[in-house]
Write a structure and sequence with these properties.
508 residues; eight-stranded mixed β-sheet; five-stranded mixed β-barrel; 12 helices; globular
């Protein structure tokens, strides 16, 4: 018996060694009296060689092989004459002596390669083929390493991984539940957990002071770019902790993950309040890989000209795109169409170019004097060659979110959002409640399981929007544009100690 190897292991094989390989045929090609085939498995690609002069029948069988045929070969490791530096096994090839076709295959509907010619719908229909592509496999490998290192880190910090039930009672959370009918109890239903909220707090009451779980959560809500009905989250809970304990613990986990998985040393995470994140970036998970902060222009543009849209707006904000005054009218129109998309919802876009002579030319310059446009340039700190983009609206929060989408789009167009660059930070002091005119009561802005960050004692509660407000002990760590730990501090009814001393509190 010859040793069975994977394609990845062959880089360590000795020339002249006889090996057995199994895998999928990536492609075949005939050159003179030789047939070459690329054999692919989970670990890589290896070149096979069939020689017509040595074994014509074997070579003829190889010529009939199609893409994605499953084969097993026995052959001898040989040094390649023309080496391929793009492959780990590019220095060797296998001279095939035996060939066994384990399974023939029809021609796949798209190429099983990094850059496939199949669209999303086609690839999802044949997902088992899509999973063979190297880029998808690498994502699965990354996810595996990520989960493994999370478990290793949290175990070292004294956390216990405890499995919680999937069929539970419905609990009041931020989305609709998925329900499962009970056969044993007609007319009654289980709910799939939106998160193990109640269960993990029961564990805290039971004395399991450090719990974690990599858990499936289910939320029956509308699809968005970063939301889907079923997702996996790292769910943690700690007792007897303060804010700094939480931040230090999960900042340490973030550093550990970046170092062990990507070999990247990230610096100490800066902290930004939710109010500043929304003011300067329009998002509670801002992409800080590039600057381009929002500049509020109410004092500059509202009431200083005859442009009615600005004069009636509650918010006017802009971004300065360095060196982008070369944008043509067609490109500006494309950006206008972008912000008008239903999922963004802006009514339009105003732009201003700063020429090489410092003069400002704007799409609304007929409504404003040169002095106002000069004030606009100064407020934006724009220099010759820069492009100013402005969005306004009757709702500050919505207008900021629209400007956020425009900022991200410009960042992508300008090459400021590379996948291999990371910028991490903590977003702290999330708002807790807002007044609802429709409901005539305070409504939780995120979720109701947070403790108000009153210091040192709570103010008198007056349920009116102009006289009562609070921030919550809630934090989110943003890495580039992807939220990682999402943490909040809660006080249970059975342990209502004052917030200014250690209490039976928990954070997840």
């Amino acid at each position: 018996m010859y040793r069975t190897r994977t394609c990845g292991e062959l880089r360590l094989a000795n020339v002249g060694e006889t090996v057995t390989l199994s895998g999928w045929v990536q492609r075949t090609r005939k050159m003179g009296g030789m047939t070459f085939a690329d054999l692919r498995d989970r670990y890589g690609i290896t070149q096979l060689v069939f020689n017509e002069q040595t074994d014509a029948a074997l070579c003829e069988r190889a010529n009939r092989m199609g893409r994605e045929w499953v084969i097993q070969i026995v052959g001898e490791v040989s040094e390649r004459q023309s080496k391929n530096q793009n492959l780990p096994t590019g220095d060797i090839e296998i001279i095939v002596r035996q060939l066994v076709v384990l399974n023939e295959a029809q021609t796949p509907p798209f190429t099983i390669e990094e850059q496939s010619d199949g669209g999303d719908d086609l690839r999802m229909k044949y997902r088992y083929l899509d999973l063979r592509r190297p880029c998808v496999r690498k994502n699965l490998e990354l996810r595996h390493k990520f989960a493994f290192e999370v478990r290793r880190y949290l175990d070292q910090q004294g956390f216990m991984e405890i499995e919680t039930p999937v069929l539970v009672n419905s609990t009041p959370e931020g989305a609709r539940d998925f329900v499962v009918p009970s056969r044993m109890n007609p007319g009654q239903f289980y709910a799939l957990p939106q998160s193990p909220q109640t269960l993990k707090q029961l564990l805290m009451v039971a004395g399991m002071d450090r719990y974690f779980q990599i858990v499936k959560c289910f939320r029956d809500e509308d699809l968005r770019a970063d939301r889907q009905p079923e997702f996996t989250q790292i769910d943690c809970e700690m007792s007897f902790v303060e804010q700094e304990d939480i931040l230090q613990m999960f900042e340490g986990m973030s550093r550990h993950l970046f170092k062990t998985i990507l070999n990247i040393d990230i610096p100490k995470l800066p902290r930004m309040t939710w109010a500043d994140a929304m003011k300067y970036y329009g998002s509670d998970k801002p992409d800080t890989r590039f600057d381009m902060k929002f500049v509020e222009l109410m004092d500059v543009l509202k009431g200083t000209g005859e442009f009615g849209v600005f004069n009636e707006a509650e918010y006017i904000g802009g971004i300065c795109c360095e060196g982008q005054a070369v944008y043509t009218r067609k490109q500006i129109d494309q950006l206008t169409d972008f912000v008008r998309r239903p999922q963004i919802g802006a009514k339009g876009l105003v732009y201003a170019r700063v020429g090489e002579d410092g003069a400002v030319k704007s799409s609304v310059d007929k409504f404003y004097s040169p002095e106002v446009l000069e004030n606009l340039k100064n407020a934006m700190q724009a220099r010759p060659g820069d492009l100013i983009l402005i969005i306004s609206g009757p709702d500050t929060l919505k207008a900021r979110k629209q400007l956020c989408e425009l900022r991200l789009e410009m960042g992508s167009r300008m090459g400021l959002r590379p996948r291999d660059k990371f910028s991490c930070l903590w977003v702290i002091d999330f708002p807790m409640y807002e007044w609802s005119d429709e409901e005539q009561r305070l409504m939780a802005m995120h979720h109701p399981f947070t403790s108000p960050s009153w210091t040192p004692t709570p103010p008198a509660f007056v349920p009116m929007p102009t006289t009562w407000s609070s921030t919550a002990w809630r934090w989110a760590a943003a890495a580039s544009v992807s939220t990682t730990p999402d943490c909040s501090r809660r006080y249970s009814k059975s342990s209502a100690s004052p917030p200014n001393r250690p209490s039976r509190s928990s954070a997840s």
